Amino acid sequence: MDLRLPSKVLEHIFSFVDSNEDRNSVSLVCKSWFETERLTRKRVFVRNCYAVTPAAVARRFPGMRSLTLKGKPHFADYNLVPDGWGGYAWPWIEAMAEKSPSLEELRLKRMVVTDECLEKIAASFKDFKVLVLTSCEGFSTDGLAAIAVACRNLTELELRECIVEDLGGDWLSYFPETLTSLVSLDFSCLDSEVKLSDLERLVSRSPNLKSLKLNRAVSLHALGSLLCLAPQLVELGTGSFSDKLDQEAVSKLAQVFTELKELKSLSGLWDVLPEYIPLLYSVCPGLTSLNLSYATVQMPDLVELLSRCSNLQKLWVMDLIEDKGLEVVASSCKELRELRVFPSGADVDETNVALTEQGLVYVSEACPNLESVLYFCAQFTNAALVTIAKNRPNLKCFRLCVIEPFASDHETHQPLDEGFKAIVESCKDLQRLSVSGLLTDKAFEHIGRHGKKLKMLSIAFAGDSDLMLHHLLSGCESLNKLEIRDCPFGDTALLENAAKLETMRSLWMSSCGVSFGACKLLSEKMPKLNVEVIDEHSPETRPDSSPVEKIYIYRTVAGPRMDMPEFVWTKHKNPEIGVSHLAIE
Amino acid sequence: MITELEMGKAESELELGLGLSLGGGTAAKIGKPGGGGAWGERGRLLTAKDFPSVGSKRAADSASHAGASPPRSSSQVVGWPPIGSHRMNSLAAKSAREEEEAGKKKVDDDEPKDVAKKVQVGFIKVNMDGVAIGRKVDLNAHSSYENLAQTLEDMFFRSKPGTIGLTGQFTKPLRLLDGSSEFVLTYEDKEGDWMLVGDVPWRMFTTSVKRLRVMKTSEANGLAARHQEPNERQRKQPV
C-alpha cells in the first residue's frame, strides 16, 4: 500500500506552515516533502548573502514572492567593515529578474544597492509591491524615482537608516497619480526637502496608508496639514518638531493629533521643543511604540509624556531620561516589553551621569513583560545585574553597553563576571547578549556553561586569554553569531573548536590576536567555511605568526566569492598555501 | 613551509608548526585557568594604535556623506561606543549646533541642559602613553596620592596572576610616585599646565586637577614641580 500522501494534500498541509524554521525542518524529512515544500515556499530568508548563490535560491524556490537578504556583518554598523568589502545586491536582483520575475517583495539589510539595482527592480518585477532597505548604501534619490514611477502596485517603500546620495526631493513627485495602493512610506533618513504639495496629494490618494515616516526637513506646519489628510495612520514618524508656531497654529495642531484615533507608533520628534510636548498627550494612551531617541528634551518633559503612556510596549529614549525618568516609566508603563536607552553624547566624556544602573533596575522590577533591553550607561555594578536577573528571568535579549571600556563594578571594583553569571543563569531563554565592562575569562566560563539558548553574542574589550573563546565555542550550543573585538586571545581556541564554526552562521573577530597562519590552517581544514582575512596590509607580506586585523568566518555552500576587494584575503586568492611574498594585484 | 600544515591529521589533533603547541590537544584538560600547556599561550592584547585605522577613514567618509563631520572622540578607538552611524551623525550635528548657539546666545537658557549633561561628579580622565584607550577615575573615591596611584596601577597594570593588563607586557609594580619606575604620573591643572603629581597637598590637588596622564619618565623632563632639587634627582634616574 502506498502510504505517501498525494502532493496536493501535502501542499495544502504545508500552506499552514508559516515559519521558515518549521519549513526547513519539513524539507529534511524526505525527498517528496522537500520537493513539495520548496515549490510552495513563498517567503525566502537568506541571512547571509554569501552563504548561497542567487541562482541556487531561485532554482530551489520557483514560487518565491518575497526575498529577504542580509549582507555585511553586524559590526559594519559601527564602521568596522571597510568600504568595498562586499554585500552587493546586484547579483541577486539580476538573478531574480531572470528566474523569479513574479517577485513582489524585497527586503535588504546592510547591502550595497545601486541606482542600477533599483532601476532593474522597477523594470523587471511587474507586480512589485514592497521594498524595504535597512542600513543600505550606494544609491541616490534617482533610484527612488525609478521605483516610484514604475511600480504601479507599490504598497511599501521604507528606507531605514540608509546612506543615500541625496540629489534633492524631486523623487517623490514621480509617484504617478494612478498610484493609490500605498500602505507604508518611510523616507526618514533622507535630508532634502520634498515638495509638500506632492506629498499631500500622495497622502490624499492613499486611503490604505497606515505608516508614514517623514524626514527631518518636513516642518511642523507641514505635519499638521498632512495629518489632516491621514487621520487613519497607525504609525507616524514626524519631521522636525521645532518650528515656532503661533497660538492658533498650535491649537490647530493639537486638534489634529486628537483625531489620530488609530495611532500606535510614534517616532521622529527631532529637536522637539519642550513647549510642544503637550501636543502629544492625546495620542499617548494609545501608543504601543514610542521612539524618543532623537528627542533632546530633558527628564521632566519626558516624564510628562511617558506617565501618560500606559499601554507602551516599546520605548526607545536617550539617557536624558535619567534614573528618575525610568522610575516613572517603571510605574506607568506596565506593558513594557522592549527598552532601549541611547547615549546623548557622542563621546565617552559626555556621558550623562544621572543615568545609572539604578534606572534599569527600576524598570526590571516593575515591568513583568520586559524581555528586550539595550542600555548604554557610564558604569554598572554586579549587584544591579544580579537584581535584574532575579527580577526578569524572562529576558530574551540583553545588551548592556558600559561605555567606559574595562569599567569595573564601580562600588566593589570587581570585574562584572558575577553579574553576567547571574544573567545567564537566571534568564534561561536568553537568545541575544552583549557584554561590556571589565570581564575576565570567568565571565565566559559562566556564559558557556549557562547560555544554552544563546544565539548571538557580542563582546568588546574583555577576557584574558584563549580560555574565553574556548568556553564560548565549546559551551554555547545554540550559538549562531559571535562577534568579538579587541580581546586578547590567539589561535589555539579557534583551531581547537574549528568544527563548531560549521554549526554557526558567522564569526567576526577584529583586533584580537589571531595569526595569519591560523587563518590559513583553518581555511585548509574547513572547506565549507569562507575564512576572510580583512587587513589593509596584505597579510602575505608578513610572517605567518603576525596577527591580522579582522577576520570574518562564515559557513557557505556557495564556495569562494568572486567580488573580494584587495584588502580581503581568502585561501582562494592564492591556492598555493604557504608560498608567501606573492604580490596581490 | 607547507609541511607545517598537517592536512592529513585526525580531526581531534591539530598540530601547528607556528610555535604554538597544543599538548594534549583535547578540551578535557582546560580546567586550569591560566595553567600550563596550551592555555599558557596568550595573544597579545592589541590596541587601536597597533593598526592603521582602516575603519575610521570610512567613518569620516560616511559621516561627511550624511552632511555632518564625525564627532571628535577623545579615544582613538573606531566604532566605540557602538552607536550606528546615523545616530552618531545626529549627535555630532547636535553638538555642532549647540556650540554654534552657545557662541550666539547667552548661557542662561542653556544652563539646565548643561547641568544635566556635563556633571562629572569627580571623574577625571586618565591616559597613559602607548595606550589608546583612556580610563576614568573618581577622585572623590580617593583620599591620598598613594590611594590614587594604587588604583591607577591596578587599572593599567593589573598585577593579578593569570591576567594581563592593557599593555600586556608589564607585570612589576609601578611606583608611580617616587620616580623610580619607567613612568611618572602627571596632571593638567586648571591653567592648562602639566605638572608632576605629588607636590601639593591632596585637597589642593583635587580642586585644581583637570586630567591625568601616565607619562614616560624620559618625556617628563622639564615638567613644572614645586619642590625642585631632591625630587628632581630622583626622577632623573635612568630607565
How confident is the prediction overall: mean pLDDT of chain B? 58
Strand arrangement, major sheet of chain B: 2-1-5-3-4
CATH topology of the domain at 123-159 and 171-219 in chain B: Ubiquitin-like (UB roll)
- Largest sheet composition of chain A: 21 strands, mixed
Cα end-to-end separation of chain A: 64 Å
Number of β-strand runs of chain A: 23
Shape of chain A: globular
Unreliable stretches of chain B: 1-75, 106-121, 159-171, 226-239
Strand-pairing-aware structural class of chain A: alpha/beta
Question: What report would you give on this structure?
Answer:
The complex is a heterodimer of chains A (585) and B (239). Chain A has 585 residues and is an alpha/beta fold. Helix content of chain A is 30%, strand content 17%. Among the domains of chain A are: 1-41, Monooxygenase, CATH 1.20.1280; 490-577, no CATH class. Chain A has 19 helices and 23 strands. In chain A, the strands form two sheets. Chain A has a 21-stranded mixed beta sheet, covered by helices on one side. A two-stranded parallel ribbon of chain A has the order 5-7. In chain A, helix 5 (90-99) packs parallel to helix 6 and helix 15 runs parallel beside helix 16. The model of chain A is unreliable at 576-585 (pLDDT under 50). Chain B has a five-stranded mixed beta sheet with strand order 2-1-5-3-4. Chain B has a domain at 123-159 and 171-219: Ubiquitin-like (UB roll). Chain B is globular, with a radius of gyration of 24 Å. Helices cover 28% and strands 12% of the residues of chain B. In chain B, strand 3 (183-189) and strand 4 form a beta hairpin. Chain B has six helices and five strands, in the order H-H-H-E-E-H-E-E-H-E-H. Mean pLDDT of chain B is 58; it is low at 1-75, 106-121, 159-171 and 226-239. Chain B has helices spanning 54-65, 85-104, 111-118, 145-156, 202-208, 229-235, and strands at residues 123-128, 135-138, 183-189, 194-196, 209-216. At the A-B interface, helix 17, helix 18 and helix 19 of A face helix 1, helix 2, helix 3 and strand 2 of B.
